[in-house]
Structure formats: C-alpha cells, structure tokens
Design a protein that fits this description.
This protein has about 230 residues and is an all-beta fold.
Length: about 230
C-alpha cells in the first residue's frame, strides 16, 4: 500500500496518518532540502583517477579527505582533482523519478549523474549522464525517470587542476525522489516557511515582514525598529 501526500506511515499500527502542523510529506516522495549535515542514507566515495606514469599512492591517500560538503541550503562538490561520488540508494515500489537543482559553471570539473541497479549495472535512462553547464549564479534543474526496484544514484565530480587556478565546485540542492511507497516520518518546515493545517504536502513561505523558526505552524511579525 502507499500513503497519500500529507501523510506518513505509522510503523507501529501500519496505518497512514496525517502530518502534524509545522510539518509536511510528499506521500510517495522524499525531499532533501536541508544540508546542515549529510542526510541519513547518503555517502561519499573518493578515488583518484590518474593516467600519468609515476607514483599515485600519495595522491590516492590525499583523496581520502575529499568529499561533497553540506553548506546549509545546498551541498558542494570537491574542488580538487579527486573523483568524488555522492551516493544515495533507494528502493522504489513503483516507477518514479529523481529531480534536483544544481549550479555547474566551471568546465574544469566533470559533473555526471547516473543510476545503477543493485547488480551495479548502469540504467539505460542515464545514457546522457553528463550534466549541462549553467550560467553564473543560475540554478539549473535535472530529472531522470527511475524504474521500480533498487536504484543507486550517483552525483560524481572530477576536477582538472590547471596550474594554480582554483576549480569552482558544483552545487546541488532540492533533491526530490518520487516512487517510494510511503515515508515513515514527516519533514519539518524550513525556517521562513510554515504549515498551519494537518496533512500538508508542502510548506508556505512566510508573508513579508514576518519570520519563522524550523517546524513552524505560523509566522511571527518582525519587531519594528524604533
């Protein structure tokens, strides 16, 4: 069975219940829009790909510290010449999709997004796995259909260092996955948003001159300066 948007599965009683005020759920979807830390289920794998002759052992060791880094509203890729994969595995009860927003402005870094099944076979839907560059300051979006069953999602970056030039990292935010049967918890509204009704499928932005903390049912008026 599956729960509708605005609901979550109460594991103890195995029933769909409405999310409380101040929280929301996508029902058959999960959304990652807070990056204060790496969300549960995500992992980083870093390797060093080198075709040059010579010792690469030290370089491979250096890559152990290379990773995607959470930055609050988004997650930021590595800036070095290591190959780093941000990985998330999800099991879908029905066919679905993955959507994310990104900034990718520097062609001195390779950025690819692809999907494998649990036999490590790459899915056909990611034949075009190279993500397009975006204009400076603009957020692009990328979406791919997902088959039912196990899907392992990879956001992979490799920097090409040219002298002392610093590579501008790739930024990713608002990762949304549709096709899960249910979510076992509701997500708190982000600061600056609220939900004032039980069973919300999203949070509303606070009106002008008001603010809210995380998980708010309503927004608070800003104090007027004397």
């Amino acid at each position: 069975f599956s729960c509708a948007s605005g609901e979550y599965l109460e594991m103890k009683n195995q029933v769909c219940s409405k999310c409380a005020e101040g929280t929301y759920s996508l029902g058959s979807g999960i959304k990652f829009d807070e990056w204060d830390e790496l969300p549960a289920g995500f992992s980083n794998v870093a390797t060093f790909m080198d075709t040059a002759v010579g010792s690469t052992e030290n370089k491979a060791d250096n890559c152990n510290n290379s990773s995607w880094t959470p930055r609050g509203n988004y997650i930021e890729s590595n800036r070095d010449d290591c190959t780093v994969s941000l990985i998330y595995a999800v099991h879908l009860k029905k066919s679905g999709s993955v959507f994310f927003e990104y900034q990718y402005i520097d062609n001195n870094i390779f950025f690819e997004f692809f999907i494998q099944n649990d036999q490590c076979k790459e899915m056909e839907s990611t034949a075009d796995k190279w993500v397009k560059l975006t204009d400076n300051g603009e957020w692009g979006s990328h979406s791919v259909t997902l088959k039912s069953g196990s899907n392992i999602l990879y956001w992979r970056t490799t920097g090409i260092l040219m002298g002392s030039k610093v590579v501008k990292p790739v930024l990713v935010k608002n990762i949304t996955i549709e096709g899960v049967a249910y979510t076992s918890e509701c997500f708190a509204c982000k600061p600056g948003t609220f939900s004032d009704k039980p069973g919300s499928s999203g949070c509303q932005v606070c009106p002008r001159n008001t603010y809210s903390e995380k998980g708010a049912k309503e927004c608070t008026k800003c104090k007027e300066e004397m």
